[in-house]
Amino acid sequence: MTTIDDVARLAGVSTATVSRALRGLPTVSPATRHRVLAAAEKLQYAVSPSASRLAGGRTGTIAVVVPQITRWFFATVVEAVEKFLHESGYDLLLYNLGGREQSRQRVLRTANLHKRADAIMLVATPLFAADVSALTALDVPGVTISSGTPVPGWPCVRIDDLNTARTATRHLLDLGHRRIAHISGYPHDELAFTAHAERRRGFQAALRAAGLRPDPSLDVESQFTIAGGTRATAELLARGEPPTAIVAACDEMAMGALAALRDAGLRVPQDVSVIGIDDHDLAGVLGLSTVAQPAAEQGRLAARILLDPLGEHALAAVDGRPLAASGPAGTPNPQNPQNPPVILPTRLVVRESTAPPRAH
């Protein structure tokens, strides 16, 4: 029976190069790939993915855990991760917790995760101490995205939520708004993780920097959803004099705010300006001002980092930039447990939903 060693000898390359060439990975030169394919054809060699993975003690699969796959951020990240892993010869095993505690314990606190995947990616997944202990005990490569709970030895890719919210609030302040409301997630919301707390801090920091004191009556909590934003804005309006502007902790909440303001007979932005955070796919359609975060790029970069401890750093690249084994400037080496998070930039996108207040 022809083996991969036979193909390697005939082609004059290593078995690792044969494996990469036959999987169509991008770091094999066209000439080498042609030589390997010719040798494999001549020897009538057909690669068995399952056999090669088992021989190396790997599954060829990366586990990706999300709190709720139907939300824009999670879906966008997972799509980018799946594409990157596919191009790198890996499969994606998705775990959607769906806000269920039983799912959390089954996925995060059992050895089954280790047996089914070579590495783990947690996307904005809140973690308890027992979760962190269980994940650390697995002793597999891992990475987190937008997580405020560190796992020892795991790098984290995220945005600066505090400064992102500060940018959104400062935009309204620069337009002349002073009575600015904030709608955010419940502290105990499974989907809010830590972003809502950081974004509230950023909102309040921007107000204080402008000499304003945060008004608790202008701060409402709800779910990180369109319906949550609608309820929060309706509650805000029921409290009395409406604000001249609203900062929503995410675009979906901002969309809910637009609906609630419309139902109340208030015009956007003539009566109330609204700004969100994310740059959701529908933000442009709705004319929603926002602070855009690179959701897909977070997924690609996390996948790129994650493949490094699997020995695939030479195979993975984002926008054509190869990942060095030790990590380029600003990119952590996943083997170093002391690495700071990789923070990607956000940008202000001004659309029709924000304008100076009428009295300005």
The beta-strand count equals 14
Could you tell me the mean pLDDT?
Answer: 83
Which stretches of 5+ consecutive residues score pLDDT under 50?
A: 313-337
Q: In what range is the share of β-strand residues?
A: 15-25%
What structural class do the secondary elements suggest? alpha/beta
Major sheet details: 6 strands, parallel
Q: Numbering strands along the chain, what is their spatial order in the largest sheet?
A: 2-1-3-4-5-13
> What is the tally of helical segments?
14
Characterize the quaternary organization of these chains.
single chain
Q: Could you say which overall geometry the principal axes of the C-alpha atoms support? A: elongated
Give Rg in angstroms: 24 Å
Q: How far apart are the first and last residues' alpha carbons, in Å?
A: 82 Å
Q: H/E order of the elements?
A: HHHHEHEHHEHEEHEHEHEHEHEHEEEE
Helix percent reads: 40-55%
Short description:
With 360 residues, the protein is of the alpha/beta class.
Structure, explained:
By secondary structure, the protein is of the alpha/beta class. It is 41% helix and 16% strand. The protein contains 14 helices and 14 strands. It has helices spanning 4-11, 15-23, 30-42, 49-55, 72-87, 101-108, 112-116, 129-138, 161-175, 195-209, 226-238, 251-263, 283-286, 295-307; strands at residues 61-66, 91-96, 119-123, 142-145, 156-159, 180-185, 219-222, 245-248, 273-278, 289-292, 317-318, 321-322, 342-344, 347-349. It has a six-stranded parallel sheet. It has a six-stranded mixed sheet with strand order 7-6-8-9-10-14, with helices on both faces. Helix 5 (72-87) links the parallel strand 1 (61-66) and strand 2. Helix 1 (4-11) crosses helix 2, helix 2 crosses helix 3 (30-42) and helix 5 (72-87) runs parallel beside helix 14 (295-307). The longest helix has 16 residues, at 72-87. The protein is elongated, with a radius of gyration of 24 Å.
